[in-house]
Amino acid sequence: MSEPADVKPEGADAPVFSIASLSTLKSSLFDLALASLFLNILGLALPMALLQVYDRILPNKSVGTMVFLMGAVLGALLLESTLNFCRSWITGWVGAKFEHNAGCTALNHLVMAGVDEFEREGSGAHLERMNSLATVREFYAGQAMLTLLDLPFAILYLGLVAMMGGLLVLVPITLLVLFCFTAVVLGGKLRASLQKRMTADDRRFNFIIEVLGGIHTVKAFAMEAQMVRRYERLQETCAEGAYEVALNSSTAMGLSSFFSQATTICVGMFGALVVLNGEMTTGGLAACSMLAGRAMSPIQKALGVWTRFQSFMLARHRLSELFKLKPEAPKGLP
Hints:
Elements: E1 7-10, E2 13-17, H1 25-42, H2 45-60, H3 63-112, H4 115-119, H5 123-131, H6 133-140, H7 143-150, H8 153-165, H9 170-213, H10 215-220, H11 224-276, H12 282-323
Antiparallel strand pairs: 1-2
């Protein structure tokens, strides 16, 4: 495999490797952006159809128009599903290519490093760095980019809510601001718990590798019970770290679900008052409720990416430490 050219010198030391250079996401960015554009436009089909059904078809009993409208909506949903599949196929292929390139390059750096460089840290640390590839792959495959591409359309949905409901748009905006604030706070806590768990896992893996590598010595000195007690303490620390990560992650998911349901309920409740005042139709209320949910979706995904971004930053840092290993011999030798 050819070495990526995205490196920069750092004095007389080995060049600093850029992990992003292993991703082929840039070549697929236009296709993903185009698919996201049409997906979000097609997402307007159902709210606008409900608006027509409640305000025009039901009062006028237009069965023919309803059949035509439902056929158009079904076609839009089918096309939306197809575009979602194509977009997932692209990101899956990009992720697979990145994992292959990054895995081969990482192992090349590891085996070509000098023995002193390799033994400076335990084998468990190198194993954990290799395992970081799975976490890094999600972001370099384009999952975060898809969320960023969908995010601007939340403004479009909220703009349509403002056009039909006027001040009703302040309800989803207020809930979105509260959701963003809580997600940022939880993101910081999640990153701290992830760092604690990774450090504990490093120590545990190093200990396991050392014990298994020196099993004859352990048997010769009858140290089995002592090794087990030492491992119990390390396992306890790992369990505590895993508990904190699970707790923070489930809290973030629970808050996301709560704000999603709260948006639907609050928009329906305050929208009913607007309808009773004669400032909006029933169809407009149904459309606004769906549009507010559509606006919440990309923001929920973005803040979900933000919480996972904490894991990504730690994993990328660990993987970059592997690429910093100095080679045993310069390149180009026969």
